[in-house]
Amino acid sequence: LYMQHQRPVEAIESMKALIEIKPDSLLYCDRLTAVLTGLGQLGTAIFHYQQFLQRQPGNANAYFNLALLYKKGKRYREAQNAYEKAIALGIDGLEEVFSNMGVLYSEMRQSEKAREMYERALQIAPDYIPALFNLASLTEEAGRRKEANELYERILLLNPRHWESLARL
Fold this sequence. Notes:
The chain has helices at 8-21, 26-38, 42-55, 60-72, 76-88, 94-107, 111-124, 129-141, 145-158, 163-168. The longest helix has 14 residues, at 8-21. It is mainly α and 169 residues long.
C-alpha cells in the first residue's frame, strides 16, 4: 500500500517491522530487498539477504535471490558462489539456475563456460526457452549464424510469439 502511494520509506520500515516479527520469512526479505533495489539501494538489499542467510543457511532460494542481486551489482564471483551454494542445497528449477549462470559467465566474457551452463540447463529441460535463446545468442556472437538460426527456429516452434527470436532471424 505504501508503494502504491509512493511512500517508499514507510514501505521499508513496515517490511523491517515484519521481518523483526518473522525473521525467517523469505517472502518478507524478498519484498524488502525488491523495494530497496528499486530505490537503488542494492548494497543494503544484499546486506539483508546476507543477514537472512545467517539465520537460514540452508535456504537454497535465498542463495539464488542473493546471486541475482550480486549479478546486478556486477559482483560476479560472489554471484557464482551463491548460485553454486543454491545448487548444492538442492534448489528446484536447476535449468533456471544453470541458464542464469550462463548469463553470468557471458558477462564475465567466459563464453565456453557460458555455453556449458546453457547446455546443462538444456540437459535438464530441453525446451527451456531462456537457455535456448541465450545459447542461440552466444552462438550467433561466435559467428556460427546457421547454428544460431536453427536454435531461434526451434524456439519459435515452441513459442511462435517469441519476438526476440523472430527479430534475430
